[in-house]
Structures are given as structure tokens and as C-alpha cells.
Amino acid sequence: MAKKEENVSTDDAVLQMLLDLTDKDGMEIGLTLNVNGAVIAGTLVGPHTYYEGIISSADDVENSTLSHVLHKKFTDLKEAYISEKQKEEEKSKQDMIATFIHLKDAVYISANTQSPFHSHAWWRGRIDSIDAFSFKL
């Protein structure tokens, strides 16, 4: 997360509004992104939902050792995110804008094929890499 004046390249009012709806209100929104020529479609979710989803997916990994390690690592990342967000909110009452965007059930779309992932693919990308987007309410 960054202060608005520090990160103007992500200052798209519509995209920031959608991100706020997912982060603060827990909404999920169908979204298609164009990122450096790649087309990615999925459901826009907030960071908390993203981390919880990955942690839940890690529990489904057949290799129990890998499942445990992934669960622990992503739980640590989620807790670090929450801690950082709380510190930023306490330090400054200015509006903060997200620097990453999160999708669940993400697929890469091309003229020939879709992503090799089946369902429940989680995707995370830098907001300032997005060239265009469309959404469905």
C-alpha cells in the first residue's frame, strides 16, 4: 500500500473504487485485465480473501509436508500484510491506495487456449502494470 501522492500511476478512480469495494466491503467482482498484452480474467477479491483462499488451497495439497509448509508461509504473509496495513493506517490518516490486485479463479486467455489451470487459480499482480480492464457487476 502507498500514499496517493507517492503512487500516481495507480490512481485510476474506477479501479481504486473496485479495489476498495473488495478490500473494505468484502465484495467480489468479475474482472478481465489486459497486462502488457496478456489477458487475464477472474474474480477480483481483496487481499484478505486472497490470502485466506491460498491458505485453504494449501490445506488441499496431497503432500502433507508441502501442505503444512505452504499453510504456515502464507499465514505468515497474511499476518505481515495485516500488521503493515494497521501500521500505515495508524501512522497516517491519509487515503491509502493498493499497489497489488488479487484475482481468484484466474485464467489467462489467448486466441488459441485458456490457462492450463483448472479452477481455483489465484493470481496477484502489480496495479501499475494494468493497461486496461473491464468488469461485470
* Radius of gyration, taken over Cα atoms and rounded to an integer in Å: 16 Å
The end-to-end distance, rounded to whole angstroms, is: 25 Å
Low-confidence stretches: 1-5
Number of strands: 7
Bin the strand percentage.
25-35%
- Oligomer type: single chain
Question: Helix segment count?
Answer: 3
Structural class based on helices, strands and sheet pairing = alpha+beta
Q: Largest beta sheet: what is the strand line-up?
A: 6-5-3-2-7
Order of helices and strands: EHEEHHEEEE
Give a structural overview.
- With 137 residues, this protein is of the alpha+beta class.
- The chain is built from three helices and seven strands.
- The chain has helices at residues 13-25, 47-59, 64-91, and strands spanning 2-3, 29-35, 38-45, 96-97, 100-109, 123-126, 130-136.
- The strands form two sheets. Strands 6-5-3-2-7 form a five-stranded antiparallel sheet. Strands 1-4 form a two-stranded antiparallel ribbon.
- Strand 2 and strand 3 form a beta hairpin.
- The two termini are 25 Å apart.
- Residues 1-5 have low confidence and may be disordered.
Q: Which structural traits does this protein have?
A:
137 residues; globular; 3 helices; five-stranded antiparallel β-sheet; alpha+beta; single chain; two-stranded antiparallel ribbon
